[in-house]
Design goal:
Blueprint lengths: L15 H8 L1 H16 L5 E3 L5 E3 L4 H8 L4 H28 L5
Antiparallel strand pairs: 1-2
Helix pairs in contact: 1-4
Length: about 100
């Protein structure tokens, strides 16, 4: 009597940081466009240091927006890589499922 192994399913990864990014996309784009416009006008963001010196903010617009919306860009990048790997596996799985006559996936 032969044993048949159960087909394992590929589970889509959770992407909470990417979901946060998607939820604030319109607002983030509007703020980003404004910050870009300020730079075009040669208006720059500055902040005070601990010694009360004024210094230029050198963070990218992306980093500033991520900070404002409490998004971890490193985690978001990791989620994107996991999602890409998931998509590649799902695409590779399709012809195998078709050949075996297995629906879904």
């Amino acid at each position: 009597m032969s044993k048949r192994s159960k087909a394992t399913s590929i589970v889509e990864p959770e992407c909470p940081e990417c979901e946060k990014m998607s939820a604030v996309q319109a607002e983030s784009n509007a703020i980003g466009q404004f910050l870009d416009w300020l730079q075009e006008q040669e208006i720059y963001l500055c902040k005070y240091t601990d010694r009360d010196d004024l210094c230029l903010v050198t963070d990218s617009v992306e980093r500033l927006l991520a900070g404002h919306f409490d998004i971890d860009l490193d985690k978001a990048e990791e989620e994107k890589r996991e999602l890409l790997a998931y998509c590649r596996l799902k695409n590779a799985e399709r012809p195998i499922r078709k050949e075996l006559g297995i629906d879904g996936g």
